[in-house]
Amino acid sequence: MAPSVADIPEAEQSPILLMKRNVIPATNGTYDVSENYEGDYRFAPIEEAQVSRAMIKRYFNMMYERAISDVVIVGAGSAGLSCAYHLGKSRPDLKITIIEANVAPGGGAWLGGQLMTPMVVRKPADRFLTELGVPFEDEGPFVVVKHAALFTSTILSKVLAMPNVVMMNATAVEDLIIREDFQGRQRVSGVVTNWTLVALNHDTQSCMDPNVITAPVVVTATGHDGPMGAFSAKRLVSAGLLKELGNMRGLDMNRAEPAIVNGTREVAPGLIMTGESFCNSKYLAQVSREKIQGWNFPSTMGQTAWVLLLAR
């Protein structure tokens, strides 16, 4: 049985711990702080209102500045984050705004199929994992990441570190801004947003009006049909820009994933559809020689399609 920390001789204790035990309270400006873990750890003083003001100032400055964006990405799952990574890296001049309905971004990419943790990625998408620095085991035609969260947390941290990318999570897209362009075509020109909790409670409260973000390009990566999934595809139908939705069909990884990756495109002026949301679009049928409108597939292998998708 290992001895308690108190019983370990000082020479065997961590050099970092020894350094912190001997720390001298430092004065940073007018604030006396101490990083002493033997009962004398002291934070700089703070007022509760300072916390509120620090968050409000930055968040609402971001909302003000991003009310006019260059690209809006709807959904921060694998497809949306991969799109933001590639676009943010290749075009640092663009203001890229990600809208995520959930509190926690990442979509279904925190786990593999049937809530198991490993993530399977078919080659050549392993090259993207290598670029991100995500380790994996090589199984020949595919590779395995030991935990899907390793990929998601890595790409999420890299995307959010980009100065030209911001994310508004717990924010839902309730509608699309659709205008007539100079050619007389109906064009998607931005999104209508609201807090997700508000969007889910319109039937329980009085009118709670939304906000807007304009952008010449909107990328929808909201996943397949569900509570928040395939939103843009469904809205295109009701707006008359898409005749009908495609249907999810039986599983076939060898046909489904290439069809989605190769089918990523502008499905309506100003709107690019990517990832599993594309399964609900009639355009998937045009990509497949067999005229199949959509297949469902588990996220363990489906990650491959999502990882490769980016705004063109």
Automatic annotation (TrEMBL):
<dbReference type="GO" id="GO:0009228">
    <property type="term" value="P:thiamine biosynthetic process"/>
</dbReference>
<keyword id="KW-0808">Transferase</keyword>
<keyword id="KW-0408">Iron</keyword>
<keyword id="KW-0520">NAD</keyword>
<dbReference type="GO" id="GO:0046872">
    <property type="term" value="F:metal ion binding"/>
</dbReference>
<dbReference type="InterPro" id="IPR036188">
    <property type="entry name" value="FAD/NAD-bd_sf"/>
</dbReference>
<keyword id="KW-0479">Metal-binding</keyword>
<dbReference type="GO" id="GO:0016740">
    <property type="term" value="F:transferase activity"/>
</dbReference>
<protein>
    <recommendedName>
        <fullName>Thiazole biosynthetic enzyme</fullName>
    </recommendedName>
</protein>
<keyword id="KW-0784">Thiamine biosynthesis</keyword>
<dbReference type="InterPro" id="IPR002922">
    <property type="entry name" value="Thi4_fam"/>
</dbReference>
<dbReference type="Pfam" id="PF01946">
    <property type="entry name" value="Thi4"/>
</dbReference>
